[in-house]
Amino acid sequence: MLIAIPDLLTPAQVAQARRLLDAADWIDGRATAGHQGAHVKDNMQLPVDSPTAAEVGRLILQALGSNPLFMSAALPLHVLPPMFNRYSGGQTFGTHVDGAIRTLPGGQRIRTDLSCTLFFAEPDEYDGGDLVVEDTYGSQAVKLPAGHAVLYPSTSLHQVTPVTRGTRLCSFFWIQSMIREDSRRSLLFDMDVAIQQLGAESPAHPSVVSLTGVYHNLLRQWAEM
Ligand code: NI
């Protein structure tokens, strides 16, 4: 399931991040591509040890931690440090699947359950550059306003179509969820949304408490930590 997270960052945060990103030193994205990715990847990235990546990354992690939609949809156990990429002049990233395991600088290994793309350029600033994700229901093309993000299962094949005008600027990162399986995570998310809605419309309804109990008991059965 693809889930859009609107307004993850405020316009002021986007503007601040863009000032920092514009002034940073970018490198060829193939530096961090795996064997499979190197053939189809053509973009620019911030180096993993970039101070700008660390600074804007902190801003993103803070925003994620206080975003109820992200927390409910991802049920995050670990969020990897955000990375940054830039596409222009026809650059593209052909169809690929993200690696299942990533190793943090300290040696800790993280399983990638969810992938997230956060947009820093407005859709009318560039042509092409759609994130195309092969979902259960077919291909979905995603191009969101600056400050908005999309979450999708890391098991999905995906690509970024060639950017034929302007510059596409994004952050991307992975999440290990407490709920490994996409189908279970989706069920919990749908249930949480329904409970929130019921709670908002009739807060005194006894089903709010009993359904919240069912939600937490499912989470207790399925969560891995
Ligand atoms: Ni990818």
Description:
- With 225 residues, the chain is α+β, with helices and mostly antiparallel strands.
- The mean pLDDT is 95.
- Helix content is 32%, strand content 30%.
- The chain starts with a strand and ends with a helix.
- Strands 1, 2, 4, 5, 6, 10, 14 and 17 form an 8-stranded antiparallel sheet that branches.
- It binds nickel (II) ion.
- Residues 96, 98, 158 line the site of nickel (II) ion (NI).
The end-to-end span amounts to: 23 Å
Mean pLDDT: 95
Supply Rg: 18 Å
Category by helix and strand content: alpha+beta
Associated small molecules: nickel (II) ion
**Binned strand content:** 25-35%
How many helical stretches? Answer: 5
Strand elements, count? 17
Helix-strand sequence: EHEEEHHEEEEEEEEEEEEEHH
Largest sheet, in brief, is: 8 strands, antiparallel
Low-confidence stretches: none
Helicity level, as a percent range? 25-40%
Structural shape: globular
Question: Which terms would index this structure?
Answer:
225 residues; five-stranded antiparallel sheet; 5 helices; globular
Brief rundown of the structure:
With 225 residues, this protein is α+β, with helices and mostly antiparallel strands. Helix content is 32%, strand content 30%. The mean pLDDT is 95.
What secondary-structure arrangement, pairings included, does this model have?
Elements: E1 3-5, H1 11-22, E2 27-28, E3 41-42, E4 44-45, H2 51-65, H3 68-74, E5 76-79, E6 83-87, E7 92-96, E8 101-103, E9 109-111, E10 114-119, E11 127-128, E12 131-135, E13 138-142, E14 149-153, E15 158-160, E16 163-165, E17 168-177, H4 182-201, H5 206-222
Antiparallel strand pairs: 1-14, 2-4, 3-7, 4-6, 5-17, 6-17, 7-15, 8-9, 10-14, 10-17, 11-16, 12-13, 12-15
Helix pairs in contact: 1-2, 4-5
The chain binds nickel (II) ion.
